[in-house]
From TrEMBL:
<protein>
    <submittedName>
        <fullName>GNAT family N-acetyltransferase</fullName>
    </submittedName>
</protein>
<feature type="domain" description="N-acetyltransferase">
    <location>
        <begin position="13"/>
        <end position="151"/>
    </location>
</feature>
<keyword id="KW-0808">Transferase</keyword>
<dbReference type="Pfam" id="PF13302">
    <property type="entry name" value="Acetyltransf_3"/>
</dbReference>
<dbReference type="GO" id="GO:0016747">
    <property type="term" value="F:acyltransferase activity, transferring groups other than amino-acyl groups"/>
</dbReference>
<dbReference type="InterPro" id="IPR016181">
    <property type="entry name" value="Acyl_CoA_acyltransferase"/>
</dbReference>
<dbReference type="InterPro" id="IPR000182">
    <property type="entry name" value="GNAT_dom"/>
</dbReference>
Amino acid sequence: MWIRNEPLFGRHVTLQPLNLSHTQGLQNAVKDGESWRLWYASVPKPEQMKGYVDRALEAVQLGDIAYAVINNETGKVAGTTRYYQVDAKNKRAAIGYTWYANSVRRTAINTEAKLLLLQNIFDTYSAIAVEFKTHLFNQTSRQAIERLGAKLDGVLRAHQIMPDGSLRDTAVYSIIASEWPAVRNNLQHRLGAFPCSAT
């Protein structure tokens, strides 16, 4: 394994390796905002969460690193995120499968989670590049990725079949190693604008 499956600790959040005990917390988190109703998002319904976690853990056996995002202030599960398509030979991976409870959006939670993930892969594991992928029509996700400082590499047209049968065009972004210092400074600056409380 190139990236160790171990917790990442921040001031506002802890990224805990995902396990079955997080299922109920994720069910509670997804009910806050009902993100599964967004046609362009791949977020499970509460009753689908057990299967979602099971599939995530299967992916971990194949090389993904999946996390439950824990709000340090409340101790509750705020959402989930993951390294996937981990390519040890070429020192690159994608970050995705990320969603949060509505109550923690636009707080320090996502900002610090991204900082922890990027800091880990670039500083600890000397990654060459990190990718982010999202539905072309998911403007909220695209804007969040662009605020990180990621650059648009291109669009994969008719890339995936969505659960409703529609075809997803996927916007692909990346951050390369030479860009990481500026991205880190941007994230640290943004994180400094939040109080110690995550809410």
